């Protein structure tokens, strides 16, 4: 057998042994319970036998130790049965209460949508996909020829293609573009649907992996279009003239530029 077959065989043997062990433990538990019950009955019978022997040799005919013991035993059993009866009634009331709660839960469950999504949920997901795909086109995403195949997973709410995560088919630079597109789409969807987005975004070095400067400029413009409804912070290292020119072409009224001449984090002297 191959290594994988050996592993599967050993795992099957392990499962069988675990099942057998569990079965033996349950049998042992039942046997212990039966043993305790038998020991209790044996103890009572021994006491009764002792009382009967005492009666045989007793000179007082008016008092029978065995009868007294038997009566006490019966009274004890009656008390136990009454206690059991009360316990059963208490448990019955609790079960009736739980049954009513379960009935209410089933009624509430029947009012839920069969596919766990409401119509509004589906609308939000569709809008998220629409914004995401439009952003991909705007930012120059090229790893997928037909962007109509892009979907939003109903399990993870992340973009997928034919059920697989988009990043597996994306180049390094397109993976950055997809991050831009999805991050922006989340906030755009929230604005359109009056969602709970905090209206704050932070992009750290968005020009990684030799991103084409025109695509990054489109990112800047799409952020500016949002206006003052949100706060977007972009930390970027201006390494070449193209990046400097892209920033320079933006309207100075639309953003605030904070230059850090040296290192942003430095040792305190």
Automatic annotation (TrEMBL):
Which InterPro entries is this protein grouped with?
Answer: P-loop_NTPase
SUPFAM superfamilies annotated for this entry?
P-loop containing nucleoside triphosphate hydrolases
Q: Which residues form a coiled coil?
A: 7-101
Per the record, the domain of life is Bacteria
Entry keyword set: Coiled coil
User: What is the protein named?
Assistant: Uncharacterized protein
């Amino acid at each position: 057998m191959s290594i994988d077959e050996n592993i599967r065989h050993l795992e099957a043997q392990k499962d069988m042994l675990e099942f057998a062990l569990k079965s033996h433990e349950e049998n042992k538990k039942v046997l212990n319970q039966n043993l305790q019950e038998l020991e209790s009955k044996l103890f009572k019978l021994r006491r009764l036998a002792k009382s009967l022997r005492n009666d045989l040799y007793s000179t007082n005919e008016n008092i029978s130790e065995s009868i007294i013991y038997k009566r006490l035993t019966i009274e004890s059993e009656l008390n136990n049965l009454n206690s059991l009866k009360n316990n059963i009634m208490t448990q019955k009331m609790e079960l009736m209460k739980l049954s009513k709660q379960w009935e209410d839960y089933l009624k509430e469950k029947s009012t839920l949508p069969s596919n766990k999504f409401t119509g509004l949920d589906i609308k939000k997901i569709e809008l998220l996909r629409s914004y995401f795909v439009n952003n991909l086109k705007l930012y120059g995403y090229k790893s997928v020829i037909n962007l109509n195949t892009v979907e939003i997973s109903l399990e993870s709410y992340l973009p997928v293609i034919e059920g697989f995560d988009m990043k597996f088919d994306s180049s390094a630079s397109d993976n950055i573009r997809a991050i831009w597109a999805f991050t922006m789409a989340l906030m755009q969807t929230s604005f359109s649907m009056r969602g709970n987005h905090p209206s704050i975004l932070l992009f750290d070095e968005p020009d990684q992996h030799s991103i084409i400067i025109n695509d990054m400029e489109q990112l800047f413009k799409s952020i500016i279009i949002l206006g003052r409804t949100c706060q977007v912070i972009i930390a970027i290292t201006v390494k070449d003239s193209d990046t400097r020119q892209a920033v320079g072409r933006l309207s100075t009224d639309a953003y605030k530029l904070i230059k850090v001449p040296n290192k942003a984090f430095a040792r305190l002297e």
